[in-house]
Amino acid sequence: MNRKFKKCLITGITGSGGSYLCEHILSKNEKIKIYGTYRSSGYLNYLKKKYGKKIIFFKIDLRFYKKIKSLINRIKPDLIYHIASNADVRGSFFKPKEIIENNNAITLNLLEAVRVNRIKSLIIICSTSEVYGSVKKKDVPIKENKNINPINPYSASKAFQDIVSQVYYKSYGLKIIITRMFSYTNSRRKNLFQTSFAKQIVDIESGKKKFLTHGNLKSVRSVIDIHDAMEAYWLTAKRGKIGKIYNIGGNQVISVGGYLNELKKLSKVKIITKIDKKLLRPTDVTLQIPDVRLFKKDVKWRPKVNFKDSIKKLLKDCRNPL
Q1: What is the dihedral of CA 254, 256, 257, 259, to 10 degrees?
Q2: 163-214 pLDDT, tens per residue?
Q3: What is the CB neighbour count within 10 angstroms for residue 60?
Q4: Could you say which of 32, 91, 97, 259 has the lowest number of CB atoms within 10 Å?
Q5: Are 143 and 100 in contact (CB under 8 A)?
Q6: pLDDT band per the 50, 70, 90 thresholds, residue 251
Q7: Over the stretch 56-72, which tens digit does the pLDDT of each residue have?
Q8: Coil, strand, or helix at residue 113?
């Protein structure tokens, strides 16, 4: 299986993940027409400057059903990546209603727009490992059939996205594949622990900051590079089986504290760290290690970027932001 696409719609294209995904797809296929929705500008000017007319942007609030319905009917994309989301995990504890209502509405509206318009798009729902919640050691590595058990408002909203997408596949025959992405590097998203650490190191190197602050360092994760994550998304569309749910994650398993130590080794100055209780979550995931055998089998994907090289690249990107 090797699907070909002419028109690709990315929701949340100007966000951190959306902008990386857009760039990756164009590096794989220059002829594909990219359409993107956005609510806030984010990396809009960067993408416009770099790609010009290769991308058509639509400023639209996906919470308004009639707008997304009209847009879907106008574009008639054969591929949709639904990556738009308010992904602030810690922030969701303080604004649960806002984040849950937003993430639920934009997903339901998108699926309903595709259904009502009878568009035959392949839809990649970009879910997250957060839906599994706090997992016991006996359930590691986590398989796709593990019961989802969200423990924060953000992951509750992603669980809804995940489940309602399964319903639209089973009940209405929409062509949907769900990916549950585990930790990956992303220098454009400041609230990821990896990026937060790297940016603070850069600020300490330049004298803007004296200490690196952190929250829980004991959580254990699998980590992949942004390039491997975006390639996984692309290959999901090309080769993934419709109706399937796929875990996506790396071979490298490390604690949050261990990752911080690897970054500190690359710093140009000595880094002094301090815990900031404001960064601690009321509830936190402890083990996020995926079983990715199904994804590797169906999609023929393997992470290629070396762990040490990935850390160096993250720090380099934070030292030289766009």
Answers
A1: 60
A2: 999 999 999 999 999 999 999 999 999 989 999 999 999 999 999 999 999 9
A3: 17
A4: 97
A5: no
A6: confident
A7: 999 999 999 999 999 99
A8: helix
DSSP secondary structure of 233-267: HHHHHHHPPTT-EEEE--SEEEEHHHHHHHHHHT-
Predicted structure pTM score: 0.96
Q: Where are the domains positioned within the chain?
A: 7-185+224-249+289-305
**Amino acid, single-letter form, for residue 94:** F
Q: Inform me whether the pLDDT recorded for 137 exceeds 90.
A: yes
- The DSSP secondary-structure symbol of 282 reads S
pLDDT of residue 123: 98
| Strands 220-223 vs 252-255: parallel, antiparallel or unpaired | antiparallel
Q: What is the pLDDT, as a whole number, of residue 286? A: 86
Instruction: Summarize pLDDT for 201-245 with one digit per residue, the tens.
Output: 999 999 999 999 999 999 999 999 999 999 999 999 999 999 999
Q: What is the largest CA-CA distance in the chain?
A: 59
For 32-50, give the DSSP string: SEEEEEESS-TTHHHHHHH
**Residue of 92, 71, 144 whose CA lies nearest to 283:** 92
CB distance 289 to 222 below 8 Å: yes
Cβ burial of 199 (10 Å; 0-12, 13-18, 19+) is buried
The 10 Å CB-count burial string (b at 16+, else e) for 71-96 is bbeebebbbbbbbbbbbebbbbeeee
Grade residue 310 by pLDDT with cuts at 50, 70 and 90.
very high
Strand boundaries in 146-289, DSSP class E: 175-181, 212-214, 220-223, 245-248, 252-255, 273-275, 287-288
Instruction: Give yes or no for residue 102 having a pLDDT over 90.
Output: yes
| Helix, strand, coil percentages for the chain (3-state, nearest 5) | 45, 20, 35
What 3-state DSSP class applies to 124? strand
**CA atoms of 35 and 160, how far apart (whole Å):** 25
